[in-house]
Amino acid sequence: MKLDLSMAGDIVASMQAEILAGEKAVTRAMRQAGSDLKQNWRGQITQAGLGRRLANSIRSQIYPKSGESLKAAALVWSNAPQIIGAHDTGPLIRSKDGFWLAIPTPAAGKGTRGKALTPGEWERRRGLRLRFVYRRGGPSLLVADGRLNSRGVGVASRSKTGRGRSTVPIFMLVPQLKLAKRLNLARDAKRAEAAVPGLIVANWFSERV
User: Fold this and answer.
1) Could you give the angle at the alpha carbon of 95 between the alpha carbons of 94 and 97, nearest 5°?
2) Buried-most residue among 70, 122, 141, 149 (CB within 10 A)?
3) Is the pLDDT of residue 2 over 90?
4) 167 and 98: one domain?
5) What angle do CA 197, 199, 204 make, to 5 degrees?
6) pTM of the model
7) DSSP class of residue 117?
């Protein structure tokens, strides 16, 4: 039996076209995988009740930033890694000084840009001294002798007779706090990674059709 082998067309040009198609396929696949993972992480954060602002801290970037490559990669990250990481792992939080963690009650109000106040900051802002109250059956307290305003925030009492004055719990004191795990970012990351080969094949095939 005799076989004849012949080449049709320019093999070099064909190989170059295949490489270009591969570069486009890989780059598009990584862009899609990165975008999908970003949206899935943002969705998790929003559904966990952590707010759209924290969800929008999730960013993605494709590399190379311009052009296409067979080595294209996607990076997904958070601009608030400590907060996201805490909700993703559910760590045990202790005071760095070895004393109490001061947990603000609603009566403490908020600081600048909605941030939680420390006991020292609260005293400076409100002009009141906090008093320690030990409780055997529950968290000890830092309280202020004042009143609650219309927003439920502890403030100084203006009454000269003491009318309306009360002892207002401002902070709860605990030795440690277990933060609930509210996110599972690794789950979505593994799904995104597993989807990459299929995305590459689909995009490569679309280039050849």
Assistant:
1) 140
2) 122
3) no
4) yes
5) 95
6) 0.69
7) P
